[in-house]
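Before relying on records like the one below, remember that each one covers exactly one chain. Contacts with other chains, cofactors or solvent are not represented anywhere in the record.
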Amino acid sequence: MPAVSHGTSESRGEDRWRIRFELHLPYAYEALWPALTTPEGLRGWLAEAQVLERRLGGAVTLRWPNTGTVATGRVTAWDVERVVEYTLTVHERIRFHLEPVGTDSTVIRFVNERGGPDGERLDCLAGWHEHFELLESALEGRPANWAAWTDTHWVALREDYASLSG
């Protein structure tokens, strides 16, 4: 599987920014949708869905097993097998837009819009990058082993993003 390409970020005003990732994955979008929208799928690469009402306006509570962070919110976009968006207390707006490419490949366009100082922007770039690597592994049948997770790779990714930011 190809490596996850670096994400980008842009300012959206003072202490506000938008992070973007574009992933090209060799899976049909029907295979990807559950990874983004079901408790079992999310647990394999992102977070434990303690609450997940799979509909527009539904409640969401995610707990990141690697950090213990808990975020609550709502499903703010839901277009089956195409778009899901969660607006959460911690990460604010996270949106996944799936675009099929032929019959067996999909592009995921990801956006995270939120506020915070520049250090948090770099933290999120590194964090999302690592989570998307975990997504690829989960899709290959190797879900995240949260008990064995350390921040070593995340630290290296953050340093890389910091150097790219100049």
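The chain has a mean pLDDT of 94.
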